[in-house]
Amino acid sequence: MKPYLISALAAILSSSAMAYDVKSGGKTSVKKDGANAYSLPAANLPMSKRLDFSVGNSFFRNPWVQAPASTDARDGLGPLFNTNGCQNCHIKDGRGHPPEKDDLHAVSMLVRLSIPAMTPEQKKAYIKDGGIPEPTYGGQLQDFALQDQTPEGKIEITYTDVPVKFKDGTTVTLRKPHLNITDLGYGDMHPDTEFSARVAPPMIGLGLLESIPDETLLAWADEQDADKDGISGKVNKVWDIEKDDFSIGRFGWKAGQPTLMQQNAAAFNGDVGLTSHLFPNENCTSKQSICDDMPNGGKPEVSENILDFVEFYSQHLAVPIRRNVNDPNVKLGQQIFAASGCESCHKTSVKTAKRPELPALSEQLIHPYTDMLLHDMGEGLADNRPEYQANGREWRTAPLWGIGYTEEVNGHTYFLHDGRARNLMEAVLWHGGEAETAKQNVLTLNKKERDALIAFLNSL
Hints:
Blueprint: H1 3-13, H2 47-61, E1 80-81, H3 86-89, E2 109-114, H4 120-129, E3 144-145, E4 154-165, E5 171-182, E6 194-199, H5 206-210, H6 214-220, E7 237-240, E8 245-248, H7 260-272, H8 290-293, H9 304-315, H10 328-339, E9 350-351, E10 365-366, E11 374-376, E12 394-396, H11 406-410, H12 424-429, H13 436-443, H14 447-459
Antiparallel strand pairs: 1-3, 2-6, 4-5, 7-8, 9-10, 11-12
């Protein structure tokens, strides 16, 4: 084993840092294998609240339909949209994937659109909105439309090979994605359009992440790298509609939404074409008359009551427990994960705030493996599209809890914001920027050590 790893492991093993609980989500954690491992309510959610969870699940899982319809609680779909139901993107409450070569639609991937803020008016709007929508197509490309209507376009992804070599000579071939938008339905896009392809992230543990105190996130932040460790995470400050003020961003690949309520309402609007009290306008631009021409499902189409149920559901989806924690290979991998520097951003443990209104999530010791901060991940992962205070190279640290269940829940192992990584090692090797040193440490590992690292990640 490498000298730097030997000294680091000695320090780690002499501390209590390795004594992680198998219950990644604290008392909310559940023991469940198989395709439904992400779909259970928090273990400590009382029976009196499980009906609320089930009702929220029904609005998350079942499809919305075109208005007018006899199912008036679920009508108002579109007319432009990416999906007709949340579960189509967050498959089994899990992770989406990029489109395959012959897929007609992206379904569980979407493409954000924006243009640079150049004029004084645009720069002022950017501060509050976090982006300037593309003038014709808005802030997101919708590749579905109601029957006999025209979708905005089609998303295609192609790849080129990027070989990466380990110190022992083993080569891994990464795939670099190339986004192409075809069949534009409403004319040309702005010549300076910024694009960002993003797959749907898993839904587990979101209420716990929402419950991490602001003070903790601010204490973890080190934007100027004052401690000179090469890690300079920062919080994103985003507009909170309900507060009518800025809040810390927590959700989305660039932490662009402050709360689950706003995240859900934004997804209903942008992904499904549904209005709510938070997003009262249809997702058409002034250059698209289709929203004015088609009947809607009421104003708003998603009631506050429905939003409350979906919020409760998304807050209480449980994290499954860790597996194989006593396997010697997993223990070795855990040591390598720490010694390589991965824990600098993938924080292992934190306690949630006291939340009397949500007792199941209150004061839980959790192990999410994220700091919820924005980090420069290097040019290789850059989308070159800013979002509030996140620049084009910065991404929020993705939580790793439950990641080992991905294949059995979703039937694939595509990772990172655009699903380019086909397995966990490819995801690691795409890291750059602030994570470059950690990646270089991983590149020195031999096969046994690499296998152990992956075994640890799969135990989460």
